[in-house]
Amino acid sequence: MTYRIDRLAQLLHDASRALRREFAARTTEHGLSATQWRLLGSVLRDGPMTQAALADRLDVEPISVSRLVDRMEQSGWVRREADPDDRRCRIVVASDKAQAIAPGVRQIVEEVTEEAMAGLPDETRRALQAALVSIIDTLNRNPVSGIDTTNRNPADALSSAAVCEKTDE
Fold first, then answer.
1. What is the CA radius of gyration of the chain?
2. Fewer Cβ atoms within 10 Å of its own Cβ: the N or the C terminal residue of the chain?
C-alpha cells in the first residue's frame, strides 16, 4: 500500500473542519460562533486564563481575543476578573450562564466525536489519537514557523506560566 504524505495535512484539515461544522450545527441555539465556542471550551475545560493564553490557545492575535472577550462579556458568557497571582493582570472566567450549558455542550462534543469515529474499532481509535498527539508534540517541539510553542502540550494545552496582558485597572 502506498502512503501519500502530501495528503496528510489536507486530511487533518478536512477532518477538523467537518467536526467543527457538525458541532456548530448542533449548538446554534446558543448563538455563539465557532471561535467563541473554542474560547469558551478552553476556559470551561482548563479554567480561568489570561487573554494572552487564550490567544495562544486559539492561535489568533491578542487583539482578536480582546474583541472576542468584549463581545462574550457583553452577552454574559464570560467575565474578566483580577488575577489572584498578579494584580496587574486580568483573567477570563466562564460565567454562570456558560457553566449552566457546559454539561449539554460536553454531551454534544462526545456525540459528534462518537459519530465521527463510529466506523473505527477501538484499537484504531487509540492508534489515531496517539498518532495525532505525537504529530502535535513533534511540531510543537520543532516548529518551522519560528513561533515558540514549547509550552503547548496536546494533552493539557497551556502551562500556567503563560504571559498575561497588563491592565491599568
1. 18
2. N
